[in-house]
Amino acid sequence: MVSVQAPPARAGLLLRILPPGLYAGRAGMVVERSVRVARAGWLMFLSGAAEPFLYLLAFQVGFGKLVTEVAGPDGRPMGYVAFVAPALLATSAMNGAVFESTYNLFFKLRYAKLYDAMLATPIGPLDVALGEIGWAMTRGGIYAVAFLAIAAAMGLLASWWALLMVPAALLVGLAFSAIGMALVTFLRSTAQFDYIALGLMPMFLFATTFFPLSVYPEPLQWVVRCLPLYHAIELMRGLATGLLSGSMLVNLAYLLVLGAVGLWASTRRIAKLLLT
Amino acid sequence: MTTVESTGRVVGKWHGAWLRVEGYWTWYRRHWVSTLYSTGLQPVLFLAAMGLGFGSQVRPGVVTGGLSYLQYIAPALLAAGAAQLGIGDSSYPVLSGFKWQKDYLAVTATPVSPGQVLGGHLIWTTLRLTLAGAIYAFVALFFGAWAGPSVLLVILVGTVTGLACATPITALAARTFDEGQRFGLIFRFVVMPMTLFSGTFFPISQLPGAIRWLAWLSPLWHGTQLARGVSAGGVGGWAMLGHFAVLAAVFAAGWAVAHRAFYRRLVV
């Protein structure tokens, strides 16, 4: 006799969004695996912290000599290197998170079949998503602390609010890794990696990293305001200079929503790709 | 009586390499869209952001030789883009030919020699570099980035720079078996600093004297100087010849090592 179990009744909004099989409370295991992998490739891991430092150096010795002052968040002129530093931190948090959750994730998903193996154990797709995003955030957080220490030593931070840049970097990491993870599940081959660069590079170049928003003509300013990196940079720049404003709540909300949407979408995609 | 022609046909030295180029072309015709970013679009984006955006904050002065910042970095960005394309196309793609796709092994099982495989790769890289340079130069024309018709020479300089960066990396890829983090570390610690500190965005005279010699070592700096000298003047004739000689030497040395490595790895 085969007893057929009735499918569990799905009551309530929360359970409909998060069906019980998706989550087993073992996201920590996924993080632990990543930590072990990173320990094996520690040089590459550390080099991620070196990259923004190299940029900072380039600005200190080179770009900063070409442009000494630009308009800061409150419109008053500020030192150029101090203007760029928080943007570089935001970019490095974005890059760290996106690389971890796109290139690395793609190989684990398509070639190493890592998640097939994981889902064969009591680990659900939400565990995988949370674990990978958690690890990407950890990585971004470590880079943020290193960068902040260097920027402080160079005298580029004007306020104690700058300490809040570490949690802000974690939030940026969450938002970008979640959305990156959801998007990368749609990629089919490594040749399509150019699309990732095509998304990241223009954002890095144009989202007010190197020059203030006022450079753009009015319609283009609105396009830039839609970019997620713009909000990350605004948040960081406000904290680094201590010039807080109400619009930073908008930046914060934008990143939170992006992270939530990304988490939801990546869970759904992993479940769809691997469980059906 | 009928004569039977042999089906095996030994191809000439150049023809063998061109057969490889034909193979690359066949692939490229199908996948060119996904390479648009590296072919021309990336330097154009940099030109827009740094030349127009950042450049709007820079006043033309002694540093830029009296040029607008846009005109100052336009030729250098062509060289930098060529260096990145040359290195990118010679790292994983070459290793893949040996290790993952194994098309180098397949091709050398025919009368095509390892030297011709290398030659085909370099000819193809040359064509791609020239195409990318031409696309970039054409788009930059609309930015007002070029001072005169010497832009055609800048494209050529870009190709030479890209090739000088390509052969050492090809040699390295041919001698790489378990790649580990090798290419990742090269991109991080060689290519990225080279792009930032080789006089692309600001003259290397701003670097502290202790590390300036590092810029002299990088082929990109020589390419940048050459490109700037060709497009805007300001670099003397002998100096230009010197820069070109360095690029040619790096290319030749890389090619010689790569040639040996290809034979070692493909001829049992």
From TrEMBL, chain A:
It is a multi-pass membrane protein. Pfam families: ABC2_membrane. PROSITE patterns: ABC_TM2 (PS51012). GO terms for biological process: response to antibiotic. The keyword Transmembrane helix applies. One of its GO terms (cellular component) is ATP-binding cassette (ABC) transporter complex. The keyword Iron does not apply. InterPro entries: ABC2_TM, ABC2_TM_bact-type, ABC_2_transport, Nod_factor_ABC_transporter. It comes from the Bacteria. It is found in: Cell membrane; Membrane. Its main location: membrane. Keywords: Antibiotic resistance, Cell membrane, Membrane, Transmembrane, Transmembrane helix, Transport. GO terms for molecular function: ABC-type transporter activity. Residues 43-273 form the ABC transmembrane type-2 domain. The chain crosses the membrane at residues 40-58, 78-99, 142-162, 168-188, 195-215, 235-265. Belongs to the ABC-2 integral membrane protein family. This is Transport permease protein. It comes from Amycolatopsis mongoliensis.
UniProtKB/TrEMBL annotation, chain B:
GO terms for molecular function: ABC-type transporter activity. Residues 34-265 form the ABC transmembrane type-2 domain. Its main location: membrane. GO terms for biological process: response to antibiotic. Pfam families: ABC2_membrane. GO terms for cellular component: ATP-binding cassette (ABC) transporter complex. Keywords: Antibiotic resistance, Cell membrane, Membrane, Transmembrane, Transmembrane helix, Transport. It is found in: Cell membrane; Membrane. The chain crosses the membrane at residues 129-147, 153-174, 186-215, 235-258. It is a multi-pass membrane protein. Belongs to the ABC-2 integral membrane protein family. PANTHER family: NODULATION PROTEIN J. This is Transport permease protein. It comes from Amycolatopsis mongoliensis.
